[in-house]
Write a structure and sequence with these properties.
The protein is mostly helical and 101 residues long. The protein has three helices and no strands. α1 packs antiparallel against α2. The longest helix has 22 residues. The protein is flat, with a radius of gyration of 19 Å. The termini are far apart.
C-alpha cells in the first residue's frame, strides 16, 4: 500500500462522511422541485465516499497505476492566477451590493 495515496483516499472518504452526515442536520422540507435543501449535500457526500473508497482500494492494490508523468509549464502563470483570484474575490465582495450574477 502506498501511504500518501491511502491517506488521500481516507481524507476524501472522511470528507464525504462529513457532508453526508452533515446533510442530515439540514431541513428536508421539499420545495416545488420535490427535493429539499439537504439533497445536494447528501449526493455530494455519497459521491465523495464512493470516490474515497475507490482511491483507498486503488492504493491498496498497487497505487495509482498507469499514471502519466506530470505535464505543464515549468513555472506557474502568476498573472493568470491573479486575474482569476481578483474576479472571484470581487464577486464575493460585491454580491450583497450588486446581487447574484
Amino acid at each position: 500500500m502506498v501511504k500518501p495515496q491511502a491517506v488521500l483516499g481516507a481524507g476524501v472518504f472522511a470528507l464525504g462522511l462529513f457532508f453526508a452526515l452533515g446533510s442530515r442536520q439540514i431541513s428536508s422540507d421539499a420545495g416545488y422541485g420535490g427535493v429539499g435543501p439537504n439533497f445536494l449535500p447528501l449526493v455530494t457526500g455519497v459521491a465523495l465516499v464512493l470516490c474515497g473508497a475507490w482511491l483507498v482500494f486503488e492504493s491498496a492494490t498497487g497505487g495509482y497505476r498507469s499514471m502519466d508523468e506530470p505535464t505543464g509549464a515549468a513555472r506557474a502563470d502568476w498573472v493568470g492566477f491573479a486575474w482569476v483570484s481578483a474576479g472571484i474575490l470581487s464577486n464575493a465582495l460585491l454580491i450583497e451590493r450588486v446581487g447574484f450574477i
